[in-house]
Design brief:
Strand order of the largest sheet: 1-3-2
Shape: extended
Largest sheet: 3 strands, antiparallel
Low-confidence stretches: none
CATH topology: Arc Repressor Mutant, subunit A
Strand content: 5-15%
CATH architecture: Orthogonal Bundle
Number of domains: 1
Mean pLDDT: 93
Order of helices and strands: HHHEHHEEHH
Radius of gyration: 18 Å
């Protein structure tokens, strides 16, 4: 007697590109981090933390690691004491800038209609 294995059902992200993108970019901070890096200037952790009001250092580090693993943020360590690390967007993430700018514009308009 053999046991049949039931294959897992595909998730929505497996079949829908919008859901896949939301999985990559989802969460409270990822789009805000990308937006802060969008000017092209390398940013250090402390600079990002000052700009992203309300984010803890631990959450920022976790989100940066996730964005780096997804190929959206480049982490550049420098061999100096004290340690220095700078973050920039990858070309893949730079493709999101116009999209995020559109979201920012929509958010501004929507906020005005809700007040």
């Amino acid at each position: 007697m053999s046991i049949k294995t039931i294959p897992p059902k595909p998730s929505l992200a497996d079949t829908c590109n919008v859901a896949y993108a939301i999985n990559v970019l989802g969460g409270k901070w990822k789009i805000s981090i990308i937006w802060e890096l969008a000017n092209g200037e390398p940013r250090r952790l402390a600079e990002l933390r000052r700009k992203l009001v309300g984010i803890s250092e631990g959450v920022l580090i976790t989100q940066l690691k996730s964005l780096e693993q997804d190929g959206l943020v480049k982490r550049q360590p420098f061999p100096v004491v004290p340690p220095r690390v700078e973050y920039t967007l990858t070309p893949q993430a730079e493709q999101l800038i116009d999209i995020i700018r559109d979201i920012e514009h929509w958010g501004s308009n929507y906020r005005q209609t809700r007040q």
